[in-house]
Amino acid sequence: MKPFDPDQRNLVRSPLDDENLLSGQFWGELRVFLAVAKAKSFNRAAEVLNTSQPTVSRQVRRLQDLMGSQLFVPTKNGVKLTAKGQALAQALTKLDHSLFALTNDLRAESKEAEGVVRVSVTDGLNTFFIAPAIQSFSAEHPKVQLHLKSPANVVSLRENQTDLMIGFSPVDAADISYRRLGHLHFIPVVAKSYIQQHGIPTRTNLTDHLFLQSDYYTARTGLWDAWIRAVEQGRIAHVCDNPMAYGMLVKAGLGIGLLGNYTILERDAVPLDLDVRISIPLYALALTERLNSRPVRLVFAWLCEMFGPANPWFGPTLRLNPPPSRFDAGIKMLFNL
């Protein structure tokens, strides 16, 4: 005999039975809060939301009153999150990701693979390899839509709010799956126009040359030490953290750059022997739960093939003249080869 009747509604209730659950304008205030958190400014958030700054300020104050905590503190350039505000912002971004996954999974239950798959990948790998290959992928899976995003965080899949990520290190977490792929190889490269103006850089004359630096290449992890030592011998002409713009600075002849080995197919590119060769392992990372979705599994497998050892550019050892392959399509397209 059971102590309670499952049909006795006043004792056995669901949260959905609470008529005050997320009622009123609470959702709207959370949306305004998240807009301010992203913009780091009440004025900029008001522009994004197409409303006034006083309205934004009023809704944030109301949310703070409801929570009993200050969510923002003023800075010279706008506002920043408090510890409580940061916790709320992270909870909201997780909710947004969960809602996206839920709605996408509902579409994925149909026989044909259908849905949106969000992928975070660096601009260089995206431009040279993923974007040019989408046409053939879409021909096979026409109802799978890719949302390609530049990673806001190069080490954290969760922070990027995507289903998949091409990353540079494994993640030891129960909710994240990963597969080791190939290696991304970097070498010093200079344009022919630079050589015409400054001469050919060698290991013995770097004090006479200009370098193009990036914050990506300055981490004191030991991996970038050979490049850092070379740069310290010369002079930094410019610093650029956008991979494609960085490549254009090299192409424009503004200095010695550190680029992926595949860029040497560009007719104007000259690889340099400066005792700098850097190889980084590549990993395909996925939210484990999202791999239950057929579209996500298809994209995951597709990326693993693209950046795995089958692609000569990402083999275990650096190659400057690998045999032609179908993975060269984007490189040839960009360089008009």
TrEMBL record:
GO terms for biological process: DNA-templated transcription. It holds the Pfam family LysR_substrate. Residues 30-82 form the HTH lysR-type domain. Keywords: DNA-binding, Transcription, Transcription regulation. InterPro entries: LysR-type_TF_proteobact-type, LysR_HTH_N, LysR_subst-bd, WH-like_DNA-bd_sf, WH_DNA-bd_sf. SUPFAM superfamilies: Periplasmic binding protein-like II (SSF53850), Winged helix' DNA-binding domain (SSF46785). It comes from the Bacteria. One of its GO terms (molecular function) is DNA-binding transcription factor activity. Belongs to the LysR transcriptional regulatory family. PANTHER family: HTH-TYPE TRANSCRIPTIONAL REGULATOR, TRANSCRIPTIONAL REGULATORY PROTEIN. This is DNA-binding transcriptional LysR family regulator. It comes from Microvirga subterranea.
